[in-house]
């Protein structure tokens, strides 16, 4: 396994993995070791929202990488993409929307054959988005065409996989493009390298390739060339996918997403601290806002001897600087074990302490009933939720317009994180309720068991959820 890492978790993950290749200049300066610029079998990249990472690569190496990452903490959750990056499909256009088309790449009911020894839950739909700029001719509903996944979106985001009609094999140093033999980084490089791309493929070098030696460049061409040849063999001779669509031509590599919870982020802090000065909550703070990165780097650049205890995380300072503050509105990011993210907000921050506590009040505008409580939901009701950073549960008290209690609902979840514009966690299904008459009940244990059976939650995490739920029930 060789690993290429990019994003806010790079230093920690470079310390975690032994065989990191193609490092950034900052990582080269930070680590006192020699790095190879050779090809990577696994690529790890921070997601756009900084909540986790995308992991992409060859099945055996990917399995090993995921096993290591899952060991960071109980609240590291993993899903594999139904449409992995680099996968080539015979797709069918189901709809044209705005600047592109929706293309169904697999039958909705079709399940993926696992590429892994360890089973992982599948996330993401069977349909991708094809920008019109990525296709040479007009596209209409009902058309069939060959497409490749170029970008994946984590299941907790609203995006679909991005598709292209150009076929390529990408690596960190270079990309092979199918259907052309022109280019190749210039005749000088082509003349001196012992390896060359397969017939019908063009190589485009990335700027970082300037830092590789000839052996590493040759290894890159050989590695990408083998993948290109395998892809050629998997594609049908005809370019018309009409008879096959929707179906997969090839999925040589796989893509997974990992959601890092609070405990996992603090574990990453420990790995980073082995290499350089790291404040308590380094990754927790950077995950909350882009603007926080510069501030964290400044603190670590001018201070030494910073503590390492998660309890020393300066919640009050961080939230005062970046939010949320009293009077702000925040969403409640209710993650689900299947990878989805449901927004329960927005609500107003009515109280915030420096000890990690946050009170969010929402006004109810719809009718119905409150889950499991058996009380009526009416416009004018209020829901008051008390969060505490790092706690495995939080209560919501429902009251009528006249102040009468309609019950308390306690969500059991991964440790709560309070970010500037949202509160985030993953719901662990099992909950505790307290009805207006004072009776209590533990509910949804069957949903927790089902999530374990589906591979969405580990038995260890499920047992933690049951233990917390029992403790909350006993406290009531």
Secondary structure layout:
Layout: E1 3-6, H1 10-16, H2 25-30, E2 42-46, E3 52-57, H3 59-70, E4 76-81, E5 88-97, E6 100-104, E7 122-123, E8 127-131, E9 144-151, E10 162-164, E11 168-170, E12 174-178, H4 187-192, E13 201-205, H5 214-234, E14 247-250, E15 254-260, H6 262-273, H7 282-288, H8 291-302, H9 315-322, E16 329-335, E17 341-343, E18 347-352, E19 357-363, E20 368-369, E21 376-377, E22 382-388, E23 393-399, E24 405-413, E25 417-418, E26 422-434, E27 440-443, H10 445-453, H11 459-475
Parallel strand pairs: 1-2, 4-7, 16-26
Antiparallel strand pairs: 2-3, 3-15, 4-15, 5-6, 5-9, 5-14, 6-8, 9-10, 11-12, 12-13, 16-17, 16-18, 18-19, 19-22, 20-21, 22-23, 23-24, 24-26, 25-26, 26-27
Helix pairs in contact: 1-6, 7-8
Describe the protein's architecture and organization.
This protein is an alpha+beta fold. It has a domain at 314-475: FomD barrel-like fold (Beta Barrel). It has helices at 10-16, 25-30, 59-70, 187-192, 214-234, 262-273, 282-288, 291-302, 315-322, 445-453, 459-475; strands at 3-6, 42-46, 52-57, 76-81, 88-97, 100-104, 122-123, 127-131, 144-151, 162-164, 168-170, 174-178, 201-205, 247-250, 254-260, 329-335, 341-343, 347-352, 357-363, 368-369, 376-377, 382-388, 393-399, 405-413, 417-418, 422-434, 440-443. The chain is globular.
